[in-house]
Amino acid sequence: MPYATPQGWRVLQLGLVGAMGAMVLVFSGCQSTPGYTGGKPNNHGLNGPTTGTSSNAGNVDQARRRIQAGDTTAAIPQLLHVISSAPTSKPAFDARYWLAVAYAKVGSYPESLEMYEEYLRLAPEGRYAANARNEMDALEREYREKYQTAEEMDAVVKELSAQLQQNPQDVALLMKLANVLWTRGDYESAARIYNDVLRAHPERADDVELRDRIARLPQGGYVVLTPSEIQRRETERQPLFVFNTASFKSGKDLFTREPLYYAVTGQVVNQSSSVLYGVEVIITVYGFGNMVYDTNTVHIGRMNPGEIRAFSSRFSNFDNIEEVQRYECVAASK
């Protein structure tokens, strides 16, 4: 069943990475995060190597935890990589289900519905099949209520335009027309109306549609906050992304032959268009009950746009290496 996709939403499949803030936090758990597939860095050879089933299963589980913790946008590129690296594997089937959940959470309903359908086609008896059917039915109802067909939207635009010829200053009609145009994907036309409304009624500056869809400039102009523009701004605010993380035990005690060190490796990419200075990766290892065993800071230094740098750190501040449960990596710049 095809679903009409408003222009601009497809960009969410490629670019949503991270949440708002001055630094990006990428919690890597105890599994690797192979290959980064989101946003601009794809142009710099970041498609990671194909990974094994166990590694991909770990990535799906990590993405599931991120989604359930509210870090949805960080999970999307991870799930896309699992699907692209081994599309017919069981982890890739499960990744489709969680990708459908993620798309629904960020409001990309058409992509979510398509991914639910694909999951059910590939795994009709899968572990998430019952959930997928129920969630898909609910989402379809919500989608029909929230969005009209292209023909229906064209008819509404025609009707509202005719009404505005009789009442060109009617703010309610102007907002209805702008909202329909925005939903249809005609962002520029909608933004012009929003801007006209704001100029005539500056007291409406806090209206949700106006605040979230155009950014007024001091000189009187405005920037249209399309999905791609929001993606660009978020990338500039959160320029660092950690991926390809892994952990392993190394070194041997001369007498017990037990491993001595817990090592964490990974890569960090500057996905912005600006040079970053003082880049560092802070790695923390945890034991049972979220007890912090140790924290190391890896100093990367200057990173050019699109540049990828590897990092690694070795830990030994624990009584028993087997008690190390997980690790977290946080990338930041000065």
Brief descriptors of the model:
334 residues; alpha+beta; Serine Threonine Protein Phosphatase 5, Tetratricopeptide repeat; Immunoglobulin-like; 4-stranded antiparallel β-sheet; 11 helices; flat; disordered N terminus
Describe this structure in words.
This protein is an alpha+beta fold and 334 residues long. The chain folds into three domains: 9-20 and 51-146, Serine Threonine Protein Phosphatase 5, Tetratricopeptide repeat (Alpha Horseshoe); 150-234, Tetratricopeptide repeat domain (Serine Threonine Protein Phosphatase 5, Tetratricopeptide repeat); 239-332, Immunoglobulin-like, CATH 2.60.40. Helix content is 43%, strand content 22%. The chain contains eleven helices and nine strands. The chain has helices at 12-15, 53-68, 72-85, 90-105, 109-122, 129-146, 150-166, 171-184, 187-200, 208-213, 227-237, and strands at residues 24-29, 214-216, 222-224, 240-252, 259-270, 276-286, 292-303, 308-315, 326-332. A four-stranded antiparallel beta sheet has the order 1-9-6-7, with no helix packed on it. It has a three-stranded antiparallel beta sheet with strand order 4-5-8, with no helix packed on it. A hairpin with a 5-residue loop joins strand 2 (214-216) and strand 3 (222-224). Helix 5 (109-122) packs antiparallel against helix 6. The longest helix has 18 residues, at 129-146. The protein is flat, with a radius of gyration of 24 Å.
